[in-house]
Amino acid sequence: MLKMPQQQYIRFLREVEGCSVNEIAERVGVHWRTAKKYADKADWNMSANRRKNRSPVMGPFMEIVDTWLEEDRLLPRKQRHTGVRIFQRLRDEHQFTGGQRTVLAYVKKRKGEMELERAKTYERLEHPPGEAQVDFTTIEVSQEHRLLTYKLLVMSFPYSNAAFVYPTPAENQECFLEAMKQCFEQMGGVPQRIWFDNLSAAVVHIEKQGERQLTEGFQRFCAHYRFEAVFCNPYSGHEKGHVENKCGYSKRNWAVPLPIYESHEQLAAYFAKQALQDRQRQHYALNRRIADLWEDDRSKLLKLPECGFEAFRLTTAVVNKYGEIRVEDTTIPLLGLVAPGSEVLIQTYWDRLIILNAHHQKVREVPRSYTGRVAEVPWSQVFSGWLRKPRSVTHSQFLRMLPEPLQVYVTVKDLTERKERLQALTHWSDVYTIEQIQEAIGLLGQDTAIARITSILGMKHGSRDLPVTWEETLSPPGTRTDTLLGRYDQLMGVN
Predict the structure, then answer these.
(1) Distances in whole angstroms, Cα of residue 83 to Cα of each of 69, 93, 107, 109
(2) Which residue, among 215, 243, 2, 19, has the nearest Cα to 136 in the 3D structure?
(3) Res. 124: pLDDT tops 50
(4) For the chain, which has fewer Cβ within 10 Å, the N-terminal or C-terminal residue?
(5) 131-299 and 313-367 share one CATH topology?
(6) Global pTM?
């Protein structure tokens, strides 16, 4: 193809100077057919058609390569053709005379084209009223001055954008079914159809044909509440994209700042209240209140059964010679209740274990232990951060996690005194627990000298790793520890 200046020159020779096709071909140095093409061209609009890549060498072998690449999709990744291996087979089995680079270029191009051909187009799924989606999300909460990892089950309704949530300590089957049950009771009914991903609490495994083997507990749960369970295809989270977005929304808006609770019931009530208040806002697209749209969803709910579903797992254990059983890394003493060597039944609920004897009589009930999910708040780092910016204390979310006496202790109005206390707390928290520090301050009073509190902590709990060379640079000289015994007696209140 000639460049545009050459095409224009041919056009000039033809229109202005009146040259023949042969004269143009001679002067421009092109074939007469080329000269005629541009000399007589009438339509100079740009064409949208692209010239197809031609590969005369690969032409007869393209179908063969395409077949191999398609078949590779059915094989393990390490048993698929590389570009080099395709070249070798074409050369050895099909007398290919081209070069390796030609084959590699074609293979790379075809793999990209095949990916595009197989690419899924996400269909916008329409959900009628009364249809819900369910998923878990992970949150952090605080109890007894500790950080706990919790799971929040979110049940969202794509039609109205309403959501119902329930916190649980884990994602096991008992927690999953209990959370679902609690959401049903909050909404006063049961969705007709619920979409799930392939969570282990509901699905044992997926067959090659896509059929799912469900857990017995989940099957009984579905039969009890009469809803239709629909499962997404593996790795197709977009099929329940609404609840995925709602999980993120819940974490950002209902779990910030960190929820603090004393009992599970209090935490559950907090999240239920947040979800209820959220329904008062406008729908993101329909310019109507979510609460009004929820009425359409609610009108399609199935009626709750007369009795709720008891979600528990039944197992057995044999009492050892010490009168104990071992359940979920927890030792449960049964001495004097069941004879050693006897078999007992264990009803495992989401929050408790009930031990039954051979006559199905309850002999003991204990809280279910969830281990490995508790983390201590790094108080030393928190206090150190406050020390750098003492005015920020009253705005910190960690302030609410402190016992009330310590909240009062660190919010003293005088900033100089606040710094002194924060410096002391930074060092104390490296050695003692928050409960021990609270006990000492509660015993001695808020205005007690820092050195006196330090002494009492050391006497009651031991100095352990307290730095020997620690000096309080912010404390007034009169409150610093002195090596003289008389001064020590004075600080201890000894006459």
Answers:
(1) 10, 15, 6, 11
(2) 243
(3) no
(4) C
(5) no
(6) 0.61
The CATH fold of domain 131-299: Nucleotidyltransferase; domain 5 (3.30.420)
Q: Give pLDDT, residue 239.
A: 60
Please state which CATH class domain 313-367 belongs to. Answer: mainly beta
Between these two residues, 487 and 165, which has the higher pLDDT value? Answer: 165
pLDDT tens-digit readout, 436-469 = 898 888 888 888 899 988 888 888 887 554 444 4
Q: What is the per-residue pLDDT across 260-291, written as a single tens digit (0 to 9) for each?
A: 888 899 999 999 999 999 999 998 888 899 99
Q: Which residues contact 470 (CB under 8 A, 6 or more apart)?
A: 427
Residue 486 has pLDDT above 70, yes or no: no
Res 74: pLDDT: 57
Q: Kindly list the distances between the CA atom of residue 246 and the CA atoms of 30, 165, 300, in Å, as whole numbers in the listed order.
A: 68, 10, 21
Q: For residues 404 and 439, what is the distance between their CA atoms, to the nearest angstrom?
A: 11
Cα within 13 Å of Cα(39), Cβ side: 22
pLDDT for 470 = 47
Q: Which pLDDT belongs to residue 46? A: 60
Centroid of chain to Cα 161: 20
| Alpha-carbon dihedral sign for residues 457, 459, 461, 465 | positive
Residue ranges of the domains in the chain? 4-39, 59-118, 131-299, 313-367, 377-492
Taking the C-alpha atoms of residue 137 and residue 154, their distance in angstroms, rounded to an integer, is 8
